[in-house]
Amino acid sequence: MTDRASASTPVPAGDDTPVTPEPPHSERRRPDLPPAAPPEEAPDPHHAKLSAPVGRHLLILSLTALGVVYGDIGTSPLYTVKEAFSARHGLMPTAPNVVGIMSLVIWSIILVVVVKYLVFILEADNHGEGGVLALLALVLQRQHRSNDRRRRQLFIILGVFGTALLFGDGLITPAISVLSAVEGLEIVAPPLSHVVVPATMGILLLLFMVQRYGTALVGRAFGPVTLVWFLVIGMLGLIEITRAPRIVAAINPWHAVRFLAGHGTIGFISLGGVFLSVTGAEALYADMGHFGKRPIRLAFFTLVLPSLVLNYLGQGALLLSDPRAIENPFYLLAPRWALYPVLFLATLATIVASQALISGVFSLAQQAMQLGFIPRMTIVHTSAREHGQIYVPQINTALAVGTLLIVAGFKSSDALGAAYGIAVTGTMAITTLLFAVVTRSRWGWPLWRVIGLAVFFLMFDLAFLGANALKLMQGGWVPLLIAVAVLTLMTTWKRGREALYGIMKSGSLPIDLLLNEIRRRPPPRVAGTAVFLTSDAEGASVVLLHHLKHNKALHEQVVLLSVLPTDVPYVKEADRVEVKPLGEGFFRVLVHTGFMETPNIPELLAMCVDRGIRARPMETSYYLGREMLLPTGSSRMAGWRKRLFIVMSRNAQSAARYFGLPSNRVVELGAQIEF
After folding, report:
1. Do 461 and 526 reside in the same domain of the chain?
2. Out of 396-400, 459-463, 504-508, 571-575, least confident range
3. Distance CA 546, CA 540 (A)
4. 585 secondary structure, DSSP code
5. What is the pLDDT of residue 283?
6. What value does the mean pLDDT of the chain take?
7. Do residues 32 and 538 touch, judged by C-beta distance below 8 A?
8. Based on the number of CB atoms within 10 Å of its own CB, is 628 exposed (0-12), middle (13-18) or buried (19 or more)?
9. Could you tell me if 32 and 123 lie in one domain?
10. Is the dihedral of CA 504, 509, 512, 514 positive or negative?
11. Domain annotation covers residue 394
12. CATH number, position 304
């Protein structure tokens, strides 16, 4: 069954996505429906469970967090010092320079990871969930109350671009982490140098293949590995410190200040290498929903921070004793007999480091999906106990292909070091700006305090961003190109869905007009329940009009169901479903879903039995629309964007599968739409 519609002369057309893109649900609710509780006030049982774990559960979560959250930060010693003294910078490993760089590294960790993220940013959680999109959702909750659409759009652009940058970082982190570990072969067994790139690609391929088994399983497997890793690198550093204890002076921040003041441009450029010591901080925030704040903080302060400080100081002590060790100061910390075990352990640890970004990207993808920025994809919940632990096959495949191409293209961690950092620094600066809005609009901080803290954080963010921007032509363009491509896809999908929704709505009818027509000329009614998934939460479903036009009959019970995304990760059960009887056997059902949830429509309808809806599995049919999009309409989107949107729409997961509909009870009605 096919009709033809355009933006200028629309007729009823199918709409296969019951998620309304814009405006927020608080603005599109029917005035006669009872208001739901404000989404930001809804308590989240998942958040409550993770917010205050104790005893054995706390220890298990902390150990698992080591294997997922801190892999990236934990393996930074493999390449940070080496990159800071890279020949490209012209910085020699003299004693004052070594002490200055070590001081910069230590205080970067303290000020960025500890003060900014662990103390402040982690408090800006959206009912337990973190990441730049969760932070954006917090900002938009307040902006819904404002009529300043331009400011709202600015925040959306910032949040989406920050997310796009993190997607780019998710490609580079696994590449540089594993490559830097496997390059230990060049120290341990120089004749095997030619196998570094193939071995790295094989390890990464295996890592992406095991993602389907879930964060919990991967974390339990990797947690003990990371525990041993931190103990070993801390011990290696401590041994070397005892041989050159004067390196402990680097703990004094004055050495960092004096280094920057005395080296001018070279000192500023070296910040690009120093920044590599904190690159996992944004992933730490994105992974918060997997484990909660308390386990993340406990693991960092009891093990991660002491081990990192000891190892960096140990590398500095080694350089004070032998400046030639700059060739690879991490591996040369180990005695000759321990090189092979350390190489093996480092390889395992960098696999863990890759996991931090992969898990964070999965979480960001789910959030972006539910907030309407990317098409529907398969989301596999890999844990019945922890809601936040998911696997997204399409994203995993894209990350695998992109990471392998990057390894094949750059071939060494030195080359990748130039490309690494720009994406993370950009996201960190955006996080600071959004966090400042949250502290003002939600926490009620005085303006002087908001500005003071934002300026303090931005000093580091922008300094690191500027230092990394100098590496643009040496490979820094790669993460920016990836980010721009992802940003283009996300904004195209958002604008396309909004344009399509406008066409659908213009082709709909007020529900009262349809019901009056049914009373005046009753169509034949057949047994059972028909559920029409619709993006229009107020009018009559265009799929319903399409069905009535061709079949000239209705089921005894008709349900118009709309899924309305909210700005919170999880919606409490009492506010999840609203049911409004419309008369003539019609019901309006509004499903409120969080951006970390994937609604199952049959299960949600089962909750409505006591409100008059009969939804027996074998007596319920689900009606969806399937649009054939034509880029010949009068919408304001550019032609290339229209064609890109059509390609994305054709490759999106079907609404039937995404919402858990039984395949033998689904009816799809097609329509051609010019937009």
Report:
1. no
2. 504-508
3. 11
4. T
5. 75
6. 82
7. no
8. middle
9. no
10. negative
11. no
12. 1.20.1740
Q: Which helix (H) or strand (E) holds 603?
A: helix 601-606
Q: Quick one: pLDDT at residue 492?
A: 92
Residue 626, SS3 per DSSP: strand
> Do the beta carbons of residue 328 and residue 75 sit within 8 Å?
no
| Per-residue pLDDT band at 461 (split at 50, 70, 90) | very high
Say if CB 505 and CB 536 are below 8 A apart.
yes
Q: Residue 315's pLDDT is what?
A: 96
Number of domains forming the structure of the chain: 2
pLDDT bucket at 28, cuts 50 / 70 / 90: very low
Nearest residue to 286 via CA among 337, 350, 222, 356? 356
Checking if the pLDDT of 73 tops 80, the result is yes
Instruction: Cite the DSSP H helix spans in 339-412.
Output: 339-370, 393-410
| Domain carrying residue 327 | 61-377+410-475
Q: Which of 171, 34, 43 has the alpha carbon at shortest distance from 481?
A: 171
Residue 582 exposure: Cα atoms within 13 Å on the Cβ side = 24
- State the pLDDT confidence band at 120, using cuts at 50, 70 and 90: very high
Look at 113 and 649; give whichever has higher pLDDT. 113
Non-local (6+) Cβ contacts of 189 within 8 A are none
Same domain, 537 and 455: no
Residue 330 in 3-state DSSP? coil
Higher pLDDT, 1 or 387: 387
Instruction: Determine the Cα–Cα distance for residues 45 and 225; give it in Å rounded to an integer.
Output: 31
Over residues 544-556, the pLDDT tens digits come to 888 888 888 999 9
SS3 state of residue 591: strand
Compute how many other C-beta atoms are within 10 angstroms of the C-beta atom of residue 225. 16
Structure tokens at 250: 């680097």
Identify which of 137, 217, 222, 190 has the alpha carbon closest to the alpha carbon of residue 594. 137
**Do the Cβ atoms of 536 and 411 come closer than 8 Å?**
no
Name the residue among 33, 36, 32, 23 with its Cα closest to residue 592.
36
- Rounded-to-10 torsion of CA 561, 562, 567, 568: 20
